[in-house]
Amino acid sequence: MSGDATNWDEDAYRETVLKEREIQTRTVFRTAWAPPYSTNLDTLLVASSDGSVASYSIAASKLKNPFGFVNADTDTLLAEPNCFVQAHDGPAYDVKFYGDGEDALMLSCGDDGRIRGWRWKEFSNSSSLVFSQGNDIKPVLDVVNPQHKGPWGALSPIPENNAIDVNTQGGSVFAASGDSCAYCWDVETGKVKMVFKGHTDYLHCIVARNSSNQIVTGSEDGTARIWDCKSGKCTQVIDPAKDLKLKGSASWVGCVALDASESWLACSSGRYISLWNLPASECVSKIPTRACVQDMLYDNNQILTVGTDPLLNRFDMNGTILSQIQCAPSSSFSISLHPAGVMAVGGYGCLVDVISQFGSHMCTFHCQCV
Amino acid sequence: MEDGEIEEGPMGGVDEDEQSSEPRKLEESPFEILRTSKTSVENIVADILSIKKEAKPKQHLRDLVTQMFLHFVTLRQANRNILLEEDRVKTETERAKAPVDFTSLQLHNLMYEKSHYVKAIKACKDFKSKYPDIDLVPEEEFFRDAPQDIKDSVLSSDAAHNLMLRRLNFELFQRKELCKLHEKLEQQKKILLETISNRKKFLTSLPSHLKSLKKASLPVQNQLGLHHTKRLKQHHSAELLPPALYVIYSQLLAQKEAFREPIDLEIVGSLKDAQAFARQQAHKDTGFTMMFYYSDMSSTADSSKLEDDAPDEEEDGQRRRKRPRRVQVKDSLDQGGIFQAHPLKIIIHLYEDETSGPNSAKLITLRFEYMVKLNVVCVGIEGSNDGPENDILCNLFPNDTGLELPHQSAKLIVQDAKTFDTQRTSRPYKWAQHLAGIDFLPEVSPLILTDNDGAVKNENVISGLSLYRQQNRVLTVLQRIRARRKAQLALLEQLESLTKLEWPHLSCKSVPWALHTPLCNLDSWSPVRVPPVPRESSSPAVVDKEEHVQEPMDADINERSGATKAELESITEDGELPTLLPNMSKLDHSTQLNLISKSIIPPLNKIRSQSFKKLDDSSDFLLDIESDLDEPAQIEQEHENILSRKSVSWMDYGLREFRLVLCRKITADESNVNLEAKIKISMEYPLRPPLFALSICCISSGENHDGTGLEWYNELRAMEAEVNLHIIRMLPVDQQNYILAHQVSCLAMLFDYYLDEASPSSERTNCTSVVDVGLCKPVNGRFLGRSFRGRDRRKMISWKDMNFNSSRP
């Protein structure tokens, strides 16, 4: 504490002020629950824009309110992570688990174009302290997106990975990359198995449709594509905005979601969600939303969406709103569903809101600045 | 009957004969004669009557009548004799009366004399001396000391009486002598008084003499470059300063002399009052010195300790013992004058430190005063009548609004008044206490520092002072004040130019936004007086600039702060989700904890509801917002609320809020895009940079109406992050005071870029194959011209060579 005239450290104080602001501007890009069949099911993983992946135990004892670092007046619930790893330079965008239970790999991708994987067991058992900078567990997987060769040997910036998904049977990780390609990585070798080229702008999201060995990608160019993993060819281009007179840039596909049967695809496009029946490859319905949808997922036959407004929407397959729950982040980038029905919403302000299946808020916390 | 007859007798002329006959019969006694003649007259009358009745012959009548006349005569004679005798007796009595009267008179005189003597004796007996406690000189002393003539004088035959009289005489003599002596002494005194008054007269005239002498010597002094008189005077008055102010004075003076700190010190106030005060203090304290001493030591130690939250056990006990007594004593003192200030005050003129010239500009003048009862030092800006909210000294250091009394003991004294008197222009800032060294100074007046227990205390003070110097308190405070003042001046300048709707001038050209010529207009700039109200997003932002600008600033702020509180309450009362706060905010702590302590893992058998609405309608947190769907401004408002609710009490103190509207015309569809920024400028500027909260609304002429700004949500947040946080890290140190100008310029630049990108007119080239024209050979590979990146679609802005990632949250 650089408190008063007796012990004044102006730079430190300026730093605390800015740090406080930094927390307010930080974003949680992904919340993910611990993999099924592992011991600590109440653990929530949070990937945030400072590149950290941290786990928080939602059990009441762990979420203590630590001493606010500016002063005690700020009654902020700053949660301290149990385990913590500095995964990426720049924002960490996605966290997925490869495998089940204790043997699962925790994969993360981020703005630096890397995909890194840690053993979940190691990660969850490490009591990583904040001052260790989160570098004390070694990743078992660490791959970087390739750079493009430009003219005269210029190399493009490393494209970022905006989303990943996994296929455990094939041993592959799919990454939605910033160079408008999707990559299929081999988990064992760490090599690129397949490159999916075709989008004209960077990819926002990727979902693996493992039942038919396909992946679905959504891109900034306003289309979603379905790819065949074997051939690497695009089997279908879904253009949700085709018949909508949406103007300009407001039509990117920010997120896609597959239902459990993998026959229904929800695909956000600007302020619409379009529902596609994949076997029939036709658009079933278009659901207008108030805000841009930034993440969604299927909960049985319902769709949960979050976006640029502080609301958690629940739609049925016909596009009727079933419920709207106020949630803490004013703009949410992630929703994740615990098998028990508890939802975690993460978003702007480094806020995570944990909501029970009945819609009540179980806890809301700021992730601690590292 | 008989008298009447007797009376009648002399009346009638007939009695003349009887008178003449009477003296004859008076020979025995006139009275006898009178009686016998009367009886004989009666007898004769009886005879006559009997004659008449019995009709006796009347010859006897003649005899009888004569007889009767004879008797009458005798009667008359007797009567006459009686009268004569009476006269004689009367004269005789008359003669005898004179000596009787004389003697009785004499008797009365004597009686009177006697009573007089008795009274005099009584008076003598009752006589009380003026000095009843002084007894008569005892006999032996009398015999020893009395002069011979008194001893030998014989005044009375009675020996005892004589002795007494002699003693009395001696006493009288003695007293007379003493009186004489007294008179002599009086005279002497008078003479002395006269000489004193003469000297006094001389002394009173002396200052003017000296003054004239001083005046006369001034040129010489100037010539020689000496300024002794003033300094000596100041030193003299410094001795009378209370210890706290003395520390300030001495340390500042030392700083000034040692490091040529451009400050001027001055002690103002009446010296006489100070002297009187010191004397009074000394007098008051002598009774309690010991107690005061220890209790004060412990309490000051305590108060500093309490801040550290680690009170020593022993100290604690001592405090408990001592404090109640002390409080009592304090209470018995003048209760009304809790805020009584020491008569002496220190004025400090602070000058610019960077200018090289000898006459650097005066930045600010501070007045330090010492509250005697509270043992706190208060600071005010000399000559400023601003309200406490505008006091630029507040929050000089974090959490130091000057509203609260700095230590516990003072709070105890004030008790009822929770906060310091807000009407005062000088306030008890913590840094002032630190500057005064209140944390190690005992609260004792300097006049009783000479006590033998002063040694211990002095050690304390000395160690405290050495710590004080190590911590560089003086320098820290002076630098902070200087920085604050300069920052405020710079801020004022920027605010002025913004009020005139001019882009503030940026002297630093090494940042991207300094070279960018804004395409958007500075549409309005106004201080905000009320908390943000939800506005119709479609309505044009019409602001009466004149009115807003001319409003007095403090009124605005007062109202606003009050209203913010009200708003806060109303928000929590709404039953709205209490944790809906992306920002650091003051929340009901218990609510949060309750939320957390709920068991997070629900029963594993999944109870799934088809609809949330059906199941848990009563839940406070489940909100049915469907009705809100047609109010697109909702989110905007919420965001503003969130920002406005970021109220951490002390940080909000002295906060000013402004509303800035940037307007950009989009030529393509004739619409206006307004970017509205709510700017909160805290008193800690620039250490705590102004906080921007952005919202956007499009006002289009056509049907294409997009007012929600929801689409822009992430972009706005990115701009906020950039303006509030990231550019501050980029700014060179010397530009700190112009943060606001930089922020506004940067905001304008970002706004321009965002609009350029967003407008459909600008062609986007996503992929470019590059062909080297000269070699006529296509070069492999593609450049990806990207304008967005990442899941939050951050905008890439290239500025010259620098890839300027507009937001890296």
UniProtKB/TrEMBL annotation, chain A:
It comes from the Eukaryota. InterPro entries: THOC6 (IPR042626), WD40/YVTN_repeat-like_dom_sf (IPR015943), WD40_repeat_dom_sf (IPR036322), WD40_rpt (IPR001680). GO terms for cellular component: Cul4-RING E3 ubiquitin ligase complex; THO complex; transcription export complex. Pfam families: WD40. One of its GO terms (biological process) is mRNA export from nucleus. WD repeats lie at residues 196-237. Keywords: WD repeat. Belongs to the WD repeat THOC6 family. PANTHER family: THO COMPLEX SUBUNIT 6 HOMOLOG. This is THO complex subunit 6 isogeny. The lineage of its organism: Eukaryota, Viridiplantae, Streptophyta, Embryophyta, Tracheophyta.
UniProtKB/TrEMBL annotation, chain B:
One of its GO terms (molecular function) is mRNA binding. Keywords: Nucleus. InterPro entries: THO_Thoc5 (IPR019163). GO terms for cellular component: THO complex part of transcription export complex. Residues 1-31, 301-332 are annotated as: Disordered. The keyword Nucleus applies. Residues 1-20 have a biased composition (Acidic residues). It comes from the Eukaryota. GO terms for biological process: mRNA export from nucleus. It is found in: Nucleus. Pfam families: FmiP_Thoc5. PANTHER family: FMS INTERACTING PROTEIN, THO COMPLEX SUBUNIT 5 HOMOLOG. Belongs to the THOC5 family. This is THO complex subunit 5 isogeny. The lineage of its organism: Eukaryota, Viridiplantae, Streptophyta, Embryophyta, Tracheophyta.
